[in-house]
Amino acid sequence: MPTPTDTVIVMTVGDIPGLSARQLEILKLVAKGYSNPEVAGILDIGVDAVKDLLTNIYARLGVSSRTEAAAFAAANNML
Fold first, then answer.
1. Do residues 78 and 31 touch, judged by C-beta distance below 8 A?
2. Which of 23, 70, 76, 77 could be disulfide-bonded to 31 (CB atoms 3.0-4.6 Å)?
């Protein structure tokens, strides 16, 4: 959850450059609190694939953690 000193940039899904449908799916699951192994099981992919996709998601959103990614998803009504 962002603190009062945090800046949250609100964007729509269409504004997210290059975020694939799979990355959006992973972002939603991470924002709901699922761990990497849980996400991997739900999507029937490897944990390493989840880690790689999250790294790309963080880069595209300009964040550095799953907490920041979850805050972005919440601020943008993606949950």
1. yes
2. 70
